[in-house]
Amino acid sequence: MGDEELVRLVIQGDRQAFAQLVERYQGPIYNLAGQMVGFGEDARDLTQEIFLQVYRNLSSFRGEARFATWIYRVASNKAIDWLRKHRHQSLSIKDKLTRGFGFMSRQEQLLNLTPEEIYLKKEEAERVRFLLDSLPEKYRLVLVLHYY
User: What value does the mean pLDDT of the chain take?
Assistant: First the structure.
């Protein structure tokens, strides 16, 4: 069943349809939240807040764009609000990206990279993090949302 049909059913009160939407988008939304606020407890909490907001505001989905576009916009806006609210507690973008690269070691193992290749990839990732950290926050945010 397509997203728009599920949305229609949720608006009519079908909770199972919402559970299907959550199941479909939980991974991608958690990844977006993790890239924005760091993976772990904060990302899990933010993901729950995002889905709560999606549920409450689903009737505002007009169908002019795909549902995926709408939910990612809701998630991005909620993450930005979260960062503003927790600015004094938040990590630097470098720390967030370092956390985000936690998956790299598993990928490296799967790809059977040589130690030299692993070192070069980590060095390249560090350069990217350094350059991102030197950008103003609004530009960093655009790049992180697009590429990570």
Answer: 79
Q: What is the pLDDT of residue 132?
A: 78
Q: Long-range contacts for 65-69 (Cβ within 8 Å, ≥24 apart)?
A: 66/3, 67/3, 67/4, 67/6, 67/7, 67/21, 68/3, 68/25
Res 33 pLDDT > 90? no
Q: For the domain bounded by 1-90, which CATH number is listed?
A: 1.10.1740.10
Closest CA to 3 of 13, 15, 12, 17: 17
DSSP string across 100-147: HGGGHHHHHHHHT--HHHHHHHHHHHHHHHHHHHTS-HHHHHHHHHHH
